[in-house]
Amino acid sequence: MINREAWELGSRRSCIRELFAYGRAQAQKLGEEAVCDFSLGNPATPPPEEVRNTLRALAQEADPMTLHGYTAAEGAATVRRAIADELNSRYRGGVRESDLFLTAGAAPALTAVFAALTVSPESEFVAIAPFFPEYAVFSGVRGAKLRIADADRKSFQIDIQALDKVLTPATQAVIVNSPNNPTGAVYTRETLTALAKLLAARAARFGHPIYVISDEPYRELVYDGKETPYLPEIYPDTVVCYSYSKSLSLPGDRIGYVLVPPACADHDALLYAVAGAARSIGHVCAPATYQQVIERCTGARPDLAFYDRNRRLLWEALTSYGYDCVSPDGAFYLFCRAPGGDAKAFSDRAKRENLLLVPGGDFGCPTHFRAAYCVEEAVIRRALPIFRALAKP
Ligand code: PLP
User: Fold this and answer.
1) Which of 16, 49, 298, 358 is deepest in the core (most CB within 10 A)?
2) Parallel, antiparallel, or unpaired for β 238-243 and 211-216?
3) Domain harbouring 33, CATH code
């Protein structure tokens, strides 16, 4: 006998992975130049020089046992100290190394937090649609329910009234992802302050904390000097799930962390529960070599100019062809209304031209498609005539 739920998850790839695999197969058949793949958030820009130099230096200098051996489950203390120092140099809140639990990227960090906060099959989490589709998988590991609240369909900021309608006494946490995948929206201080006010009021009414799970793999990817407010400063019951995957172009060597800030409700119990939940899904420690890289490179930042060039090129071209796109202030995704309003049909049309765009159905927004512009500029230039031809429904 095989677990049915696990089989279902394993046998049906996500729509994004499906398109990516199709793109690889087409590229092998027709050549790389024939495919314009905007499916996956896999940065086409190398890790910052600082990271590459550190890797070289570590390979030559570091003691192999330190470099490749197990670390403590929560991560090496020196690494957590370096991360805490960097956070404290940017934000208020007095983070200590003991507030951090290092993981292999944001995905396991999120999964551990969801599991830690699931107290019964009635437990509920809320995502703001459009949302990263894996939330539905990660939040379900212990059988909790994922409820959806639509974002404001013009600004793609959180619609506070819509959110209020789905909060119940079983709500354990609201997932906030800013800068946002798939819309590129960055939640303003005003939005987050309104969110904090609502959650504080409902937590008081329900008689238990409602956490914010702040999913932040795109924190460092913000354009035009826009502010990305730090949620623990606005709402104390925030648990941060951070990742260096995108910001340091290390998605295959992922390091991330769970941060339970000192002022967070049930701080110690929650951190123990995160550690226990991670343990129960096989976590032993985050990759040791890359922990060392992070220790030495906490100040490294992505090549924003690379993404910004792509963002402007794609946004300006698509809007000039008549596409209705969300103005992306952060991350590296463009989210546009599909001509004709059916993103699946549009994505299928595009796929026939080997232009790979993710339809918004799995994000909870079937009228829109997502284009990941973390690609080489040449891919965008090759794709523009196809976008132009597809602009008419
Ligand atoms: N959260 C969001 C919104 C993402 O877009 C991704 C990856 O694309 C993740 C989490 C997972 O990140 P990681 O690769 O660090 O596990």
Assistant:
1) 358
2) parallel
3) 3.90.1150.10
